[in-house]
Amino acid sequence: MGKLYEKLSQDIRFQEGMNACINCGTCTAICPAAEFYRYDPRQIVDTIQRQDEEAIEALLKSETIWYCGECMSCVTRCPRNNAPGLIIIALRSLSQELGYFTESEKGRQQLVLKRCIGEWILKYGYCVYPRELSFENHPEAGPVWKWETDNLDKVHERLGSNLDKPGPGVLRKIPQESLDELHRIFEETGATERYEKIEKFSKEKAGEMGLSDEEYFIKAYTFNNQRHQREE
Amino acid sequence: MKNEGKRRIWQEYQKEIPNDHYFYVRSCIRQNFFPASEVMFLKIMKDELGKDIYENEYHTTCSGIGYHSDVVPLETTMTVVARQFALMTEAGYENFAASCITSFGLYSEIMHTWEEFPEVEAKIRENLWKATRREFKTPKHLAHASDIIYKVRDEIAAKAKYKLVNRHTGKPLKVVEHIGCHYSKMFPSKGVGGAEYPYVLTGMVESWGGEIIDYPERRHCCGFGFRQYLVKANRGYSIANTKKKFDSMEPYHPDMIITNCPGCPYFLDRWQYAIAEMEGKTYGENGFGIPVFTYEEVASMMLGYDPWDMGLQVHQVSAEPLLDKIGLPYDPAKKYQGLHREDLGKPVKPGCLKVY
Predict the structure, then answer these.
(1) What CATH code is assigned to A3-98?
(2) Closest Cα in chain A, distance from residue B194 (Å)
C-alpha cells in the first residue's frame, strides 16, 4: 500500500465512504457540482480505488477536489454505499496536512476560510457574526441587508434578539469561560495545528508568488481564472 | 393494488419524535439572517403549546460551517459537539433539539460514527475531559426543530386563525417545500420520510391547508455549498444551482416556498434578487419574487402573529402578496420601525425586482 493511500485509509471518513465503487456514475449524475464545474466524483473515487500514488498526489494538488459543495446528495444515491462527499473531505484534510492545497487556486482559498469562519468560531463562538459581514463583500444580500446592517442593533432589538448581551437568546454574547473551553478543545484536538499549517503554507506560497499577505488573501477571496466551469 | 411493500418501506422512515422536554441549541446562520424565527419557535412551543424547551447561554456553534469549509478537523468538531451534549446532560435533559440542519446532520453523523467506532467515542470523551472537565450522555432523541413543529402541526392547526388557503378563491395555496440537504440525504432514517419522500414540511403544509407542488428539481440543493458561497470567487456555483431550481418550479406557479434549513431560505430569497438584477428575470407574479419562509414563520402566520414580529421585513422578496392571499393583516407603516416605534428609514428599492 502506498503512503498517500495509507494515510487516506486512516481517515474515518474514508473508511466510511470508500467501499467498492462499480463506476456506475450515479454520483456524478446527481451532483450539483458536476453540473457546474469540470468535476466528476466517479473519476475521483475510481482514481483512489486504483491506489495509484502519483494520481492521488495529483488529486491532492488539484483544483478538482475543491469543487464539491458537500451537500452529500451522492450519499443518498450510491447503490454500493460509497460516499464520494466524505472521500472528498478526507482528501481535503490530507491536502492541507501535506501543504499541497496551495498548489491550486481553489485550494488557496483555505486561508480565507480559516481567517473568517475559522477565527470567528474562536473569537465569538459563532461561525458567522453579523458585525464581521460587510455589504461590500456581499452585494447579493440586497438592499434589505444593507438597511439591516445600517440599523443592526435596532433591527435585532425589534426582532427579539439578545445581540452581544449576557444571558441566553439570539446572538447573545457567549460567556468568556465557554470561549476558553472552545480554545482548549481546539488546542487539544488538532484545529489549532491545522490553522497554523494553513497560515504557514499560505505564507510560503505568497512568497513564491511574490505577493504580500494582503494581496494573497484578496486574490484567494476574489480571483477566478474562469477555467473551472463546465462548458455549456 | 398490493402495497404492503410500500407500507413497510415507509415505516422505516418514520421517526420517534418526543413532543416535549428538549435542550435547544441555536443556529449560527439563522441567528444572523432569520433571528425572529428562533424567537417564534420558542414562543410557539412554550407560550402557545406549553412545552418545556430549555436553552442556556453556554452553548456555542457546533463548528459545522468550519468543518464543511474543511478548516476544522473532525476530531475537533466531535469534541465541540460532545460539549453541547455535556451541557444537555448537566441541565438534566435527554432530548436534544437543533435549530440548524448542518448541525443536525453532523450530530447524526457523529452519533452514527460513535456507534460504529466506539474507540472514537472513547477518544472524544477523553478530549472533552482534558479540555473542559465535562462528561456527557448521548441524547436519547435527536430532533431537528422542524421535526418538533411537524410533531405538533395538528396542535398548531387546532389553534390556527389562518390557513394556507387563498381567501379570494377558496383554493389551497400552491407550496414548494425545500428540505435542507443535510436533513436526510446522509442518514435517510433520521429524517421524517427519508431522503426520497421527506414529509417533514409536507406534513405541516397539508395540516395547515396548503397543497404541495412536485416539480422536477424538488430535491436539488439550494446551492449553498459552504465554500462555494462563502468565497466570493465561487458564488457562480451557488446562484446557478438556485436558478436551476427556480426555472424548474416556475411553470407550476408556486404561491410560496417553505424551508427547514438555515441557509436555504436566505439563498432562495437573496438569489432571486440577484437574478432579477443581473438578468431582469423574476419568478413571482407581476414582477415580484416568490416569497420564501422558514417553517416557524409559516406557523406564526397560521397563528396570526404580526408579520413584523416574526421578521418578514428582513426578507428581500416581499411577503405581502402572500399575506394578502391568506388575509393576515399588516401595517405597512410599521414595517421598518424599531421596537419603540422609531423610524429606521427604508431599504433602497431594487432596480428590477418589485417590492412593497
Answers:
(1) 1.10.1060.10
(2) 10
Handedness of CA B281, B282, B285, B286 (dihedral sign): negative
Q: What is the mean pLDDT of residues A34-40?
A: 97
For residues B249 and B222, what is the distance between their CA atoms, to the nearest angstrom? Answer: 13
- Decide if B277 contacts B317 (C-beta within 8 A): no
Residue reference for cell 418538533? B148
Q: Please indicate whether, in this complex, the C-beta atoms of B314 and A144 are within 8 angstroms of each other.
A: yes
Residue B1, pLDDT > 60, answer no
- This model of the complex carries an ipTM of 0.98
Q: Which domains does chain B have, with CATH numbers?
A: 22-145 (1.20.1050.140), 155-334 (3.40.50.11810)
How far is the alpha carbon of B7 from chain A, nearest alpha carbon, in Å? 20
Q: Is B242 exposed, middle or buried (0-12, 13-18, 19+ CB in 10 A)?
A: buried
Q: Which residues pair with B258 in a beta bridge?
A: B177, B293
Output the CA–CA distances (angstroms, integers) from residue B173 to B83, B253, B254, B345, in the order listed. 43, 10, 8, 33
pLDDT digit string, tens, across residues B69-121: 999 999 999 999 999 999 999 999 999 999 999 999 999 999 999 999 999 99
Of A117, A160, A179, the CB nearest to B39: A160
And the C-alpha cell for B170?
377558496
pLDDT grade for B196, boundaries at 50, 70 and 90: confident
Q: What is the pLDDT of residues A163-198, one digit of tens each?
A: 999 999 999 999 999 999 999 999 999 999 999 999
Could you give the CA distance from residue B268 to residue B291 in angstroms, rounded to a whole number? 9
- Do B57 and A167 make contact, defined as CB atoms within 8 angstroms? yes
CB of B205 closer than 8 Å to CB of B212? yes
A73's grid cell? 446528495
Distance CA B278, CA B272 (A): 10
